Amino acid sequence: MAPKHPRTETETPGTAAKRTRADGNVDPPAAAAVGGDNNNAPPTVDGGSAPGGSNASGPSPATNTGNADQPVNRSEAGVVNAAQDGNAVGAPALTEVDAVKWLNKLGVEPGAVAGAALPTLNAILSAVRANAVGATTLPDARRAVGLPADNARVAPAEGTCVTSADDIAAKVSILQELAQAGVLTTRVASWSVAELTRLKVLLHWIDVKNNTFDITHTPAKCAWGLPTAFNDTSNTLCVEGTSTPITLWIPGELAGQWWVDGEGYPTSRPAVSVAPMAEQAADYCKAQLNELCMPNNSSKVVEGFGPSQVKASRWMTTRATKSTPASIQEFKAVYNARKTLRDKALLQPLPLAQLKIRDFVVMEVRVGRYAQKDEGQKDDKGKRRAMDRWQTFYDLQAIYKIKDATEPFSAAPEVADFEI
User: In whole angstroms, what is the distance from residue 138 CA to residue 152 CA?
Assistant: First the structure.
């Protein structure tokens, strides 16, 4: 919890003392310098020290000279303190003028928070400060709330996703929730509130009716499907005691894609890898495949995972009959999901060429397995293997493109009213 800030003896609780100048304008009050540690007091409007003693507003100039590359001093509570020049992220201001100035220092145009009440502004600054705990420099603190690293102003008309006081508060709140869910917030700091909200929903997706879940919410009651004469799912993870496959979503950045062979023809087993937005998801996936293979902890698939990445593949060979040659089909289950992710029939198909590294996608998979050949057996091609030893893998079902890698901001109306 952030330390409380003392009031001057002349203040009425919940208000700030003000002075009226001859021109009718109101001056903001000076920051209080009451006895005790006042290291968190905000700077005055002109950026100077508060009255009541030498450097009462913060650390000495030697601690932070205002250079953006210098570390921002922190209190014992872990929050970022105010630097003497007023450029650092710090404690809540005592007046609306101070609060707006602090947000303006972070690159928020004054008009974006015009008219906001002091409690709202202070709440925003407190949230910004809490979200910047991990920042060691002012640029880091600015990036933590999705703003440019330098002091350049970014007006809402120029595309910034910070457009109002409520928007700022909502964005910081969602960033904090995503951080608790394991998301590295610097990866999504430039996203709009609508996009961050959508990511939060995807990371907690549980659709029991359609047996679709975020990967980290895989149902506990699941098993290999039942062998049947038609639509055999015995090698697919299903709802326990049924032949209904479980579909899993992995939201992340596209990290790799393999669609063609060395000669440029569609490969028989295309593959895709993503870096999950929730960093613990990659470890969860590796543990899941290891637990489901036989014997346990012998999965060879996870050895091909890159650091913090998850890979999925799909066999694309088909035969009309057992005696006809195999043909290789091109993987085409790639969709534009900027607005909705529910019904494939309503989605626009995308060519593979429109998938780029670092695109934000949802990789849809099912857990599959295949029998291993007996140890010491050189070649068992054409022979049916006993299902007593098997490997597990993620069977690629579809790729939904949510956000293009080249879109740092997204103010498009269709994104603001998205449907999952």
Answer: 13
